[in-house]
Design a protein that fits this description.
42% helix, alpha/beta, globular, Rossmann fold
C-alpha cells in the first residue's frame, strides 16, 4: 500500500520522545474514554507509538495491545505501561498491512494513521476485521480537508501536508465504508473545535508573517464554539460498533465496487476544495505582498 510518510521520518520525530500519558481533559482522550465505556477484554492501538493514549484505555480495565514500526514498540513502550501497572498483551513491531493476528479485540482504534495511506478504505477494513462482534472501532485523524484548515496547512505547513492523503480526511466516507462492512456508526464528524499547528518547514517571509498572525489569533479562535465544524475543526473522529454475525472481509470483497465509488467521490470532493483553497492562497499571497 502507498504510505505517504516514510518510516524514517517517523523515527526521526520520535528520536527524543519521552513516554507520557495524554491529557485526560483533551477532546481526543474524552472521546476515546466515552467510546470504550462499558467494554471489557482487550484493546489495540494501530500505530501505537509512543502510546500516550493507551493509559486512557488501561484506566478502564482493558488489556493493552499495540502495533507500530517505530523502535521501542515491542520493548520500551510495554515496559513503560507495565510500570504503570496496566495489564499488557502483545506489542508488535511490524507493518500493520502485513500483520495477520490470530485474535480479535473489544476496542480497536487508531489516531493519525489511516490518512497517510492512498488506499485508506483497505486500511479501514484491516482495522474493522480485528473488532469482535459487538465491539467498537474508533478512527481519528487531523483535519486538513475543511477549507480553513486546508488553507492554513497547505500554505504554512506544506511539507507535513504533503505526507497526508487529504481526500481520506472525510468522516462521511469512513461512515459509508464501515456501514458496508457491518458496523453501526455512533458518531462521525469534527472533534474539539479550532486549533492549528505547523511542523518545521522552510517558509518564505510572507508565510512567516502570516503564521505569526495565526499564532497570535489562535487562543481566541480556539475559544469560539462556533468553529467546531468540518471546515474549521482541527480533528476528525468516528466511532462505530460491529454488528453480530458479520463477516467483515467477505463484505469488503462483495462491496469493493461501491467502496471504490466512495473513494473516488472523496477524491473529487477534495479536488474541488483544493481549487477553492488554492485561489484563496493566491489572493493571500498577493495581498500580503
Amino acid at each position: 500500500m502507498t504510505n505517504l510518510r516514510s518510516q524514517a521520518s517517523w523515527d526521526q520525530s520520535y528520536a527524543a520522545v519521552r513516554f507520557a500519558k495524554a491529557d485526560e481533559s483533551s477532546s481526543v482522550a474524552r472521546f476515546l474514554k466515552n467510546s470504550a465505556a462499558g467494554l471489557t477484554g482487550e484493546c489495540i492501538e494501530i500505530g501505537c507509538f509512543p502510546g500516550q493514549f493507551l493509559p486512557i484505555l488501561g484506566d478502564l480495565g482493558l488489556r493493552l495491545n499495540g502495533i507500530d514500526l517505530a523502535p521501542g514498540t515491542d520493548d520500551a513502550l510495554p515496559t513503560w505501561l507495565r510500570g504503570l501497572s496496566y495489564e499488557i498483551g502483545q506489542f508488535v513491531r511490524q507493518d500493520f498491512t502485513e500483520w495477520a493476528p490470530e485474535k480479535s479485540y473489544s476496542f480497536v482504534y487508531s489516531l493519525g494513521f489511516l490518512e497517510h495511506f492512498v488506499e485508506w478504505p483497505s486500511i479501514i477494513a484491516h482495522h474493522a476485521k480485528l473488532v469482535v462482534p459487538g465491539g467498537t472501532i474508533v478512527l481519528g485523524a487531523p483535519n486538513f480537508s475543511g477549507i480553513l484548515q486546508r488553507i492554513l496547512h497547505k500554505f504554512l505547513d506544506g511539507r507535513n501536508y504533503s505526507t497526508h492523503y487529504v481526500p481520506s480526511m472525510n468522516t462521511e466516507a469512513w461512515s459509508r465504508v464501515l456501514e458496508l462492512l457491518g458496523f453501526d456508526v455512533t458518531y462521525a464528524g469534527p472533534l474539539g473545535g479550532f486549533d492549528f499547528w505547523a511542523e518545521g518547514d522552510v517558509r518564505s517571509p510572507v508565510q512567516d508573517a502570516f503564521l505569526g498572525v495565526v499564532q497570535k489569533a489562535r487562543p481566541y479562535l480556539m475559544s469560539l464554539p462556533d468553529l467546531n465544524g468540518f471546515h474549521t475543526s482541527s480533528y476528525l473522529a468516528l466511532a462505530a460498533k460491529r454488528r453480530p454475525q458479520v463477516d467483515v472481509m467477505q463484505r469488503y470483497q462483495q462491496a469493493a465496487p461501491v467502496i471504490e465509488m466512495i473513494r473516488s467521490d472523496a477524491d473529487e470532493k477534495s479536488a474541488a476544495l483544493d481549487t477553492v483553497a488554492d485561489g484563496i492562497i493566491s489572493a493571500l499571497k498577493a495581498h500580503i505582498r
